[in-house]
Amino acid sequence: MFKRTDKNYFILLSLGVFNLLVLYFFIKKPLAYLSVGDITTYVSTIEYLKSGGGNLILNRLLSSPLNLYSVLGLSYVTGSIQYAFLLLNAIFYFLIPVFFYKIALLIHKERASALFASILVLGNWCLYVYGTYYPDPQGWFFFILGTYFALKYFYNRADRKYLYLTAISSVIGFFFKEYGVLPMATLGLLILLTDDSWKKKMGEIFSAGAIFAVPVICYYIYFYFQYHYTYLDWYFSNINPAGTPESGIPMLIKTTLWVYVAGWPILLLGVFHEWKEKNQERLNIFLALVPSSFAFVIWPVYTQRIEFVFVPIAALISGYGLSKLQNRKLVAIILATYILINYGIAMYL
Q1: What is the value of pTM for the model shown?
Q2: What are phi and psi of 57, to 5 degrees?
């Protein structure tokens, strides 16, 4: 996984450890177990699965079964569900920048750009606020992992194992959190952008789609006959005809701005350089990443943790912009300022 000559992995993992120390000793707030909101529904369902206590929340068991059972298994080691959540998310917290760095290297082929982009992801406040007792970091990881495999297949068309790895990692990730399905959209679009025949393109998309769809459909059929509950029930239960504070265009704009609040000026710098260079291969890749990066718009309510999937593509473009700055001290100041602002958001949000 790691290249001995690439010190950037060490830099990212060191920053990850430093962030966790800041979170534990200074920010603290996200580490405090919350007794309200979504967290309680996951914990209650795990308690039900573990001992019959708590309440079985069907939408959690339907949408995040691997999360629930993974936390359940780890709770026998840690002694509590809360610590099991922390341990599981800590593992994915360190895996996210590693594989995102690999994605950035594939796209920009520059270590500096890849490092800067990865720091922007690792330093985002969502990882601190939602990276404790929520299952979202697990879904984010599989979103990034599946995207990595999809890109590997795009660059290595003769190696079909990456086609299958994309589908397999996506279905595993989907059972952790719905974000896992997103790389399938990216894979399909990347395949369509190739020069292969339409017959080959459709065959590859069908093969990968079948690998993903069969276990998901089987699970949903089982779930319906067992509990008489479907994902459509879960989706429409989030729709309030009168409107909710979390819905509507104003909320969409607000939450999207907040999710990358300290990075927007850097993103504009990256957009400028990408547009100036007009590298067609990279533009095609970004085009393929757009649907998965904005998939949150189809959900009835908008929150920053759902919209975190926008951060990777924003960081990829932003990191490239930073790599074009010749003054590395200035880059360091920009990144440090970005991280400090995100610390502050995590502390006071």
Answers
A1: 0.95
A2: -95, 105
